[in-house]
Amino acid sequence: MFMKQEKDWWKRAVIYQVYPRSFQDSNGDGIGDIQGLIGRLPYLEKLGIDCIWLSPVCRSPQDDNGYDISDYQDIDPMFGSLEDMEQLLAEAERHGIGILMDLVLNHSSDEHRWFQEALKGRENPYHDYYVWRDGAEGEYPNDMRSVFGGPAWQWVPELQQYYFHQFSVKQPDLNWENPKVRREIYDMIHWWLDKGVAGFRLDVIDQIAKDPELKVTCNGPRLHEFIRELSRETFQKGHYLTVGEAWGADVERAKLYSAPDGSEFSMVFQFEHICLDQIPGKEKWDLAPLPFLKLKAVLAKWQTELYGCGWNSLFWNNHDLPRIVSRWGNDGEYREESAKMLALLLHGMQGTPFIYQGEELGMTNVRFRPEEYRDIETVNLYRERLEAGYSQESVMESIYAKSRDNARTPMQWDDSENAGFTGGTPWIQVNPNYREINAAKQVEDPGSVWSFYRKLIEFRKRYSVLAEGRFALLCREDPRVFAYTRETTEEKLLVICNFFGEETDCPAECLAVYDDAEAQQGMELLLSNYSDNGKGHGRERLRPYEARMYYFQK
Ligand code: TEU
Ligand code: CA
């Protein structure tokens, strides 16, 4: 299972993301915590995952749910104590599970000691830990906007200066140009490495290096220099899994981030397949249709172009994104079929798969009343768009589709009150469909979405072709079917997915691959999302969201 002694162990690993405040509450305050997570380790072991990516649990005023850290070397009391964290690391290891910490290094909280010192005066040694510009009140240094709305600049009258914040006003950006900042960060990382973590996810790492004009957010001139130094000073001392979050990564940059010589990270989260419906110059809230042919082309491009010279991470979901079954799948009639199809499609590819909590149950988006949303981004958007004259209806449509709270509703454990998440009042409402969709129901059911994920995780260990095989896209122009092969000298996989809710023909190109293998070596159907396992059904037709994974040994 979890083998952090071996180089590149993460090439066969499957990671599970836990968003701790929504995973499991243990003390009835309505907020998930570390002890709650410890109690659920057997569930995760049974699922078969290798590591948990734990979203931030460090001390934080929780302005952005922990992505605003006020002490990198302590645990927020809301989640527990440092002792709880040490217990988690030890118990997780006993279950064969490693822990990846979430490093938020682009910014700290404004309540961090460094920033509090920085505010004391321009001469304070910590002042230069942050990014400042002189100016006059009301005259912003430039027109940069914060991701969560409003200007990216905050005026501090005592200093007659602005500080720069790409996210909330309580998340001042750190000044990576200052070597002292970098040294403090490395020391802090070593402290975590000594505690036995298996690696890190690095929050918005492509935003740390600022362009001198502070006009663009990512890919600043010294970015890779900083990352290489960070990697050399910390991660390269062991076999750690590191994944950088980089919204601005294209293929060329991803090759640097995930270079096989380990000079930067193990892999990178890029978002090209997530942003396909983004209209240039508009916001993510301005909804547009999802382009299926583009999805195929983009995923295939990343598979092909990183082969042998980089490493992909594979994901549909995280705590910032809507639920995939509500986005590309069908969260009504074909919820189970489409959730499984999306899983099979992704887990057949090359890279390290990441599963976001609840994805393995096919959890869906929510439609809350406006006052039930909690996320700072959603709350700000709602206010700003109504002020700007948008209709309430259109704003709510955007929120239903894209709010980060879609991913943040409590984990659905069972059909008891609050889905077994808490005995108290949950910090955010539970999705009302928990009586239908929950872990208790699915773990025992061999035909469930959960059991399907479990099989895919097991396959990643069992079949080398999943880790190593070369990818080839089939029927690129087919408007309904996503199909591909994976191939090594010994093995071959064939994946065929109907991406839509209507029956369709299985494209001739797929049938040819099938027939060829069947004639020579015989073809095994490893997995399908229909209970007759595709057998009784003519292979020439694909039912709604039907997905099949075939295998043969050469
Ligand atoms: O997110 C980076 C980021 O820019 C987006 O995910 C952003 O939150 C989203 O697109 C808004 O529309 C990371 C974390 O994953 C996120 O939770 C934090 O809020 C953000 O950084 C700041 O730390
Ligand atoms: Ca709690």
Fold and architecture overview:
There is one protein chain. The protein is an alpha/beta fold. It is built from 17 helices and 20 strands. The chain has helices at 34-39, 41-47, 82-94, 113-118, 179-194, 223-233, 251-257, 292-305, 324-327, 335-347, 376-387, 392-402, 405-408, 439-443, 449-462, 464-468, 508-520, and strands at 15-18, 51-54, 58-59, 71-75, 98-103, 132-134, 153-156, 161-164, 199-202, 241-245, 267-269, 313-314, 352-356, 470-474, 481-487, 491-498, 504-505, 524-528, 541-542, 547-553. It has an 8-stranded parallel sheet. Strands 14-15-16-20-18 form a 5-stranded antiparallel sheet, with helices on both faces. A 3-stranded antiparallel sheet has the order 6-8-7, with no helix packed on it. Helix 11 (376-387) runs antiparallel to helix 12. The mean pLDDT is 96. Bound molecules: 1-O-alpha-D-glucopyranosyl-D-fructose and calcium ion. Calcium ion binds next to loops. Calcium ion is lined by residues 25-27, 29, 31, 33.
Give the distinct bound molecules.
Answer: 1-O-alpha-D-glucopyranosyl-D-fructose, calcium ion
Approximate helicity band: 25-40%
Largest sheet properties: 8 strands, parallel
Strand order of the largest sheet: 11-10-9-5-2-1-13-12
Mass-distribution shape: globular
- What do the pLDDT scores average to? 96
